[in-house]
UniProtKB/TrEMBL annotation:
Cellular compartments annotated: Membrane
Domain named EGF-like: residues: 959-998, 1000-1042, 1044-1085
Lineage of the species this protein comes from: Eukaryota, Metazoa, Spiralia, Gnathifera, Rotifera
Primary localisation category: membrane
Name recorded for this polypeptide: EGF-like domain-containing protein
Cystine residue pairs: C116-C128, C123-C141, C532-C544, C539-C557, C988-C997, C1004-C1014, C1032-C1041, C1075-C1084
Organism of origin: Rotaria socialis
Length: 1110
């Protein structure tokens, strides 16, 4: 309506005398709508204020209001078919069977064994996110396994963080409350009294339908399943006791009522008795001869289990007397069919009830008689060991990981810190194979020893060490707590990169000078983040060395990328390319190493000559070719005898090994190495192989092959033997006077340093407070009863008033009059990689139109704008939803597809396309290409797509454009698909649609504002009409692009600040001010204080400092 009004406002000539198009001017703050019929709650003036007030009411109010005024939230697309508590969407394909025949776990294996691409992070539940999102401070995995911070863990119920909470999946051992909140399983079993009672779900979902056993407050179960908490409640289902016989209640219903009275201590108004009286009455009324009464209703915890109390023996706070199993569940290779009821351990159900179906499958006495080998409802006998993932990778599975109950689990769950097998064997057993491999390896913590742990982020700094060396709790076991010293969260990402490095190094042991214990200041991965001085050379490891050290004959880079391995570098990094004289030094390297030892045997362009390690006779160079790949230098593995390839990574006497001689536990300096004959000296000291005393001098050499003696030939600078072994293991001439390896360089460097900076290495965390004053908006919150009611009526939605009637505005994850149902949806997190953006877009904003397609037809879309001036200075993730259609036909298709595994495997009807449009300054919009992502997991209620959108290197190069050799018809334009090599699509021109863009919608000629693109999403066959939508040019918005963003026209930014439009459709934050260096504030209204620092040096000694921070 606002868009239509705007079109009239800007085109007054269109108004006719009898035109009935109008919009009221709402003068009362907080009202809106065509006729001002809607009003915000809590006297709020802005929508964000109303949202904040309602969620703060939940935070500070009585959680039992969720029962007085709220609803139970349900997932209705799939139902278990029971009359009790409905499913939470999180309970679909979570590995826990709740429905008969395990129908809630169809296609579970596709997610459990899913494999991610090489540039992705695999979340614990199997979903994938872009690797750039791993450990960036903000959760992106639905199970939050990509971050160490759990700042939202116990606050989701009063936080409006929709995507983080509404999409949150709980770990398997916890119970989902349906609102992002997770509780322990024993709390779900609210009737248990064996263990201390913990906090309930905020929304009491763990109590619904069994409110009488609430351990913290007495309550009564309503017909809806909600819990009424106020004493003396009169339930209209039950008349006064003296009229009970004239009611239509059955004996079983009366029996249930009486037992609920016992459990709740006569909570309901008409409860007739105390404990003893009720027992006597129940003996007379209840039909069961064994005095057993089921409670809660069968099927509440699981469709297969029923709990029974013997009401004659019930005492206050006692456990159920019996737990029985019946029905069908999926087991490995068969379906377990229990037509009779079986007694199950109650203690196990209380503690590990989420895995109780595994316990049933593991029971041999049941399996023999009750196994249905031909049922379609069963897990694969071999754990799908020969299956492939959607991206055609084999399942990562060890079918024998759980030998007791034979659960099928992903190998990435083995030794990850969480117990997944019923007897914890996946964590306690020592496996022969190391399952922390592939892409997962670089994202898990390995303990730095042979424990073969594969710890997820959850266990870093968790307070309990799972590594024998304590590295998972203390920084390299140094006593510095990981939890306290490394901060990586949404509000403080200072240590995220350092934490990534720490984790990656636990799997890849790679190591200039060692200053700290454990050499942790010279580990390769932290060095990758170093910024070298402009006159320093940066090694391939990231270490910084003096340019003069390159090709001087001594390794200063751990991987020898300053010496022999320099030849591997085909293109200089941007930093190294600026170094003057580097190319000359490269030529020196080529000359120096052209005649290196074993150069006649090895290809020196890719190999290093050395005697091999771990072979019986290193001197037999015919059998043991004395060459290793240059990439193996400095990788932490000894490939050469005496660790010649690990001179800079192996420790000897608290320093680098260098040219020192090592034999078993004995270490000797290089000049003294050949003065003593040992078991291992004959390899490096050929004179020790002399048998007749003619070649026994330290400088004599016995050549390989010919056994010819070369007098005084060792390390004389001239090649005397055929293979050059006389010049092997030789200290360069310019460094022979230095007894300690690289000591002269270290001394010179420290003398010349004016300060030592530890900015790039963590010792202690530094907290920085912002000197700006906070500008939080104080919201006037109504404290009366109506304000409380509004806050709880819409569950996770937001209440507004329509003529004093409550209306709920639901987040995309919910629908219904009271936001009481979960929707089927895709949640999307997208970030544009500006590093890959072509120069042609350097000063141009982009519009991304994200389309959800079903069989190549758009069914939903969302648009966002990439503002270069803003995103160049901060990392922005665009978060939004695409909701599946809930039309009858689409729901039928969803349910059919869920049970059709062949269709799930072979047909992928859904996809998400990110279409990119450049927004020209001359009011133009032009399509430039798209990223296409197939959706494989559309059978799930919720799927998460978290991607970094990167432009390919060939984009902008006309000769590599896939459209060069492909053409589209006259109604369409060829466009490249950026994430699929040599792929393209035909984009329909404005107004055209359908297959091959063969149809045209005439309304598009006048439907959108000038210069906007008219796009047809879908032809509606029911009304035989196309549905146009408009793609707006820069500065315009609305359904037909008549609305304008004009807040910057008034120049609101002070002190020469630059106004940048945010294109926020809500209008609440319509612009931001980019302030000059001296000013800050929302409108650059505040001037920064300046501090002058003067150092009065009274001593000639060098001043050492790490950081000066205000």
């Amino acid at each position: 309506m606002a868009d239509i009004y705007t079109s009239v406002f800007y085109n007054r000539s269109l108004i006719e005398d009898e035109d009935d198009r109008f919009v009221w001017n709402c003068t009362k703050a907080g009202t809106f709508g065509k006729c001002c019929e809607y009003q915000l709650t809590h006297d709020a003036k802005l929508f964000s204020e109303a949202v904040k007030a309602q969620f703060e009411e939940k935070r500070d109010g009585d959680s039992w209001n969720t029962q007085r005024y709220g609803k139970i939230i349900c997932y209705e697309t799939l139902s278990c078919g029971t009359d009790t508590l409905c499913l939470d969407w999180r309970e679909i394909c979570d590995g826990i069977q709740r429905c008969f025949s395990g129908i809630d776990e169809e296609n579970w294996d596709k997610l459990e064994f899913n494999e991610c691409e090489d540039d992705e992070f695999r979340c614990t539940n199997g979903m994938c996110i872009s690797e750039e999102f791993w450990l960036d401070g903000a959760v992106d995995c639905m199970d939050w396994s990509d971050e160490v911070s759990d700042e939202l863990e116990d606050s989701c119920y009063f936080k409006s963080a929709a995507m983080e909470c509404d999409e949150h999946l709980c770990p398997t051992k916890l119970y989902s409350c349906g609102d992002g909140h997770c509780i322990h399983w024993v709390t779900r079993m609210a009737f248990q009294r064996s263990q201390p009672s913990l906090a309930d779900c905020f929304n009491k979902r763990n109590l619904n339908y069994m409110c009488e056993v609430s351990p913290h407050r007495s309550a009564w179960t309503l017909e809806s399943g909600l819990c009424w908490p106020d004493k003396n409640y009169d339930d209209v289902r039950y008349p006064p006791w003296n009229m009970i016989n004239s009611s239509r209640l059955t004996d079983d219903e009366i029996c249930q009522y009486l037992f609920r009275c016992i459990l709740s201590n006569n909570f309901e108004h008409d409860c007739p008795c105390n404990l003893n009286n009720c027992t006597q009455i129940m003996i007379r009324v209840c039909p069961s001869l064994d005095h057993l009464v089921p409670y809660p209703d069968p099927g509440l915890i699981s469709a297969h289990f029923s709990f029974y109390y013997n009401y004659t023996r019930y005492m206050n706070n006692s456990n159920p007397d019996l737990l029985l199993f019946g029905g069908k569940i999926k087991c490995r290779g068969y379906s377990f069919v229990g037509e009779s009821l079986f007694n199950i351990s109650l203690d196990f159900a209380i503690q590990d009830g989420h895995r109780i179906h595994h316990a049933v499958c593991s029971s041999i006495e049941y399996n023999i008689e009750y196994s249905d080998l031909f049922s379609p409802f069963q897990y694969d006998k071999f754990c799908w060991n020969n299956s492939k993932t959607f991206n055609d990778r084999p399942y990562a599975v060890n079918p024998d990981a759980c030998p007791i109950a034979w659960e099928c689990i992903s190998q990435y769950r083995i030794r990850d810190g969480f117990s997944d097998c019923i007897n914890n064997i996946d964590e306690e057993k020592t496996f022969n194979n190391d399952y922390c491999t592939g892409n997962v390896e670089r994202h898990r913590f390995r303990c730095y020893n042979d424990q073969k742990k594969c710890l997820s982020l959850y266990w870093l700094g968790a307070g309990v060490s799972r590594c024998s060396n304590n590295y998972d709790e203390m920084w390299y076991g140094s006593g510095l707590s990981l939890e306290k010293s490394l901060t990586c969260e949404k509000t403080d990402t200072a240590d995220c990169a350092r934490l990534k490095t720490y984790i990656r190094l636990s799997s890849i042991k790679k190591l200039d000078f060692w200053d700290l214990s454990g050499h942790i200041d010279e580990l390769t991965s932290p060095c990758q983040n170093w910024v070298c001085s402009k006159d320093q050379y940066q090694c391939q490891t990231g270490q910084c060395i003096e340019l003069d050290w390159v090709c001087d004959g001594e390794w200063d880079c751990a991987d020898a990328s300053d010496e022999e391995a320099l030849v591997l570098i085909r293109n200089w990094s941007i930093h190294n390319a600026r170094l003057l004289g580097l190319n000359n030094r490269t030529e020196q390297c080529a000359k120096r190493y052209s005649q290196s030892p074993f150069s006649k045997v090895c290809n020196i362009s890719i190999e290093l000559g050395c005697y091999l390690s771990q072979v019986s006779n290193p001197l037999d160079i015919n059998l043991n070719r004395p060459c290793i790949n240059l990439t193996k230098i400095g990788d932490g593995t000894e490939d050469c005898f005496n660790a010649y390839d690990e001179k800079n990574t192996i420790e000897a006497r608290s320093r680098m090994l260098g040219f020192n001689y090592r034999c078993e536990d004995f270490i000797n300096l290089h000049p003294l190495a050949c003065q003593r004959i040992t078991n291992c000296s004959k390899v490096l000291c050929s004179n020790h192989r002399d048998q007749d005393g003619l070649c026994s001098d330290d400088k004599d050499v016995i050549c390989l092959g010919s056994n010819e003696c070369k007098k005084k030939a060792k390390c004389n600078g001239t090649v005397d033997c055929e293979y050059g072994e006389d010049e092997y293991w030789c200290i360069p001439e310019s460094f022979k006077s230095h007894v300690v390896y690289r000591s002269a360089k270290e001394t010179t460097l420290r003398q010349n340093s004016q300060f030592i900076s530890t900015e790039r290495f963590p010792i202690f965390p530094i907290s920085v407070s912002d000197q700006r004053e906070s500008e939080n908006v104080i919201i006037k919150s109504t404290t009366g009863p109506f304000g409380t009611i509004y806050s709880y009526q819409c569950n996770r939605g937001v209440a507004i008033l329509e003529r004093n009637e409550t209306r709920c505005l639901c987040p995309p994850a919910y629908y219904g009059d009271w936001c009481e149902f979960f929707s089927d949806r895709i949640s999307i997190i997208a970030h544009i990689d500006h590093k890959t953006m072509p120069k042609i877009f350097e000063n141009i904003n982009l519009k991304i139109r994200t389309n959800l397609l079903f069989d190549n037809e758009t069914i939903k879309h969302h648009e966002f704008i990439v503002i270069r001036s803003i995103e160049n200075t901060r990392k922005i993730k665009h978060k939004f939803y695409l909701v599946y259609s809930r039309s009858h036909d689409m729901l039928v298709h969803k349910r059919w597809r869920y049970f059709n595994q062949a269709d799930v495997l072979n047909h992928h009807p859904y996809s998400v396309h990110f279409d990119v449009f450049s927004l020209g300054k001359n009011n133009t919009i032009k399509e430039v290409g798209s990223w296409h992502y197939p959706i494989y997991f559309d059978y799930l209620p919720a799927f998460h797509l978290a991607v970094v959108l990167k432009f390919p290197p060939w984009f902008g190069n006309a000769t590599l454009d896939p459209c060069l050799e492909n053409s589209c018809n006259n109604n369409s334009t060829c466009m490249p698909v950026f994430n699929q090599n040599h792929s393209y699509y035909c984009s329909c021109k404005s107004g055209y649609y359908g297959k091959d863009c063969s149809w045209y919608e005439p309304r598009c000629e006048h439907y959108c504002a000038d210069n906007a693109l008219c796009h047809i999403d879908k032809y509606d066959s029911h009304i035989r009409k196309a549905n146009p939508s408009c793609l707006c040019t820069m500065g315009r918005f609305g359904a037909r692009c008549y609305l304008k963003y004009d807040d910057c026209d008034s120049n609101p930014c002070l002190n020469n600040g630059t106004c940048l439009s945010t294109y926020d459709r809500s209008g609440e934050v319509s612009y931001i001010c980019n302030c000059s260096v001296q000013f800050y504030g929302n409108e650059c209204q505040n001037e920064k204080a300046s501090v002058n620092v003067a150092l009065n040096m009274t001593s000639e000694l060098a001043a050492l400092a790490t950081v000066v921070q205000l």
